[in-house]
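sorry for the late reply, my laptop died twice this morning and i had to redo everyting from scratch. anyway the thing you sent over, i finally got around to it. pasting the sequence first so we're on the same page, its 282 residues, then the predicted structure underneath. double check i copied it right bc i was rushing
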Amino acid sequence: MIRLAGILIGLVFTFVVLLAFVVGAYTAATEGMGEETAEHAFHLDPEHVEFAHDGLFPSWDLQQLQRGYQVYKEVCSACHSMNHVAFRNLEELGYTEEEVKAEAASWVVPGIDPDTGENSTRPGLPTDYFPSPYPNDVAAAAANNNAIPPDLSLMTKARHHGPAYVYSLLTGYQEPSAELAEEFPDSLPGPGLYHNPYFANLNLAMAPPLTADGQVTYADGTDASIDQMAQDVAAFLTWTAEPSLVDRKRTGWPVMGFLLFATILAWLAKKQIWAGLKPRKD
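ok and here's the structure:
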């Protein structure tokens, strides 16, 4: 009786699992087969961009990262915070300790008046984190058409194909196509919105931040085209999101070498241990 009950319970459990699998497979197969949306029809995947930190033998292009930081400071920081990065981290980009101190001091960060205890501002220190341009989310939303600009510290980790997404978004602002206007007139950008096919719902509240070549004057003399600035800031935000990216990729090579060596060693040890034994004949 117990055995029969166990068999029945097993059959019921198997049926439930198969039913869940069939329903899930049907849902996945039929999802998106309904009425086509503007986002599905006109959203574009990010363009392919090659960076020095990509590939099998990655490295950080420190000059590019410094240029990207300059773009962030002079363009992006007007709206976007970077709360997970401290000024002292800039030493990893090739800046000296004195340069980092001077760079930190060029920023204004929140502070406390030691005499009154009230909120105030002061020049930044290397131990400070990059400040938000707004005192709170209410002020951020009020200044940006009710859209709070996201923190950029981890942006390339938060978006699929992060560096390529950032580059494509910055260079992808355009007028809506005639096809979009004809097929989905309700998807045209409303007041205070801007069309960008690389954004999830095609329209966003952020105005084009890179508007003209030469908008930033690079310290190293590089021609600051819109394309170049977009690549540089995308590379910089890749570093802010994962400063250990290159070290992590480089570590993979010795790990693979060790695993290969260990595999060969184990195979030789097996041959040595079983060398004196002959296989049994049936």
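The chain has ten helices and six strands.
thats about all i looked at so far, will dig more tmrw
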